[in-house]
Amino acid sequence: MTDPLDNQTAYWDRVAEEKNFTLPFNKRRFGNLVDLEAKVLDFGCGYGRTCEILDGLGYRKTTGMDIAEKMIDRGRKLNPHLDLRVLNPSQWPGRPAFYDAVVLFAVLTCIPTNIGQETLLEQIAHVLRPGGILYISDFWLQADDRNLNRYRVFEQKYGTYGVFELPEGVVLRHHDRAWAHALLSRFDTVVLEDIEVITMNGHHTHGFQYFGRKGRGSYGPGYLAGSGAGDEAGRQAGRG
What we know:
The protein is an alpha/beta fold. It has one domain (4-236): Rossmann fold. It is 30% helix and 26% strand. The protein has eight helices and nine strands. It has helices spanning 9-14, 27-33, 49-57, 69-78, 114-127, 145-158, 177-183, 231-236, and strands spanning 40-43, 62-66, 83-86, 99-105, 128-139, 163-166, 170-173, 187-198, 204-214. Strands 3-2-1-4-5-9-8 form a seven-stranded mixed beta sheet. Strands 6-7 form a two-stranded antiparallel ribbon. A hairpin with a 5-residue loop joins strand 8 (187-198) and strand 9. Residues 218-240 have low confidence and may be disordered.
């Protein structure tokens, strides 16, 4: 991911000790889909909150990765027994078909560009074994005046409706449904459901949880090149 918007490490390091993440984890559904012996990757793990939940459920082969070193430092202090690692972009995406499940909690919202999100999903497909589970929790476009105003204000600047700035110094994204469906089209949907969530700044928000399964076809690097995947939905979502 070469766009600076998709790699706002300085911000996440700066707020590492003060932000608390609250997206709910669907223990029952995850447990029904993913065996306790599975190798699980929590990508964008922050300070390891979801890794801690997984460990409490009995998943002992869980790895958390994040680009923000200070988030990882916080997590290691809180839970030194967890396998939390600073993500080295030069070594990512790593071994193909290595993980049985990948968790992305509020990660897409931190990657504002279409190409950044597409690249990440391509990389996730690379490291996920055929039949493996992808579990995403993130945010839809909102309909309240506060959000509608900032979507309009920042659409011209960033070229995508739903991308916005916070005064504290970070650019985030809420998601159009058509774009989300196109982005995830390489996976076989198990379930996509709407949920009510609370953001890291305490706002009540409409979100979604997605469980998908990697199909048996080829989903390695280069899948998107020339495929046109998501082009129409991307335009509908304000793709520049």
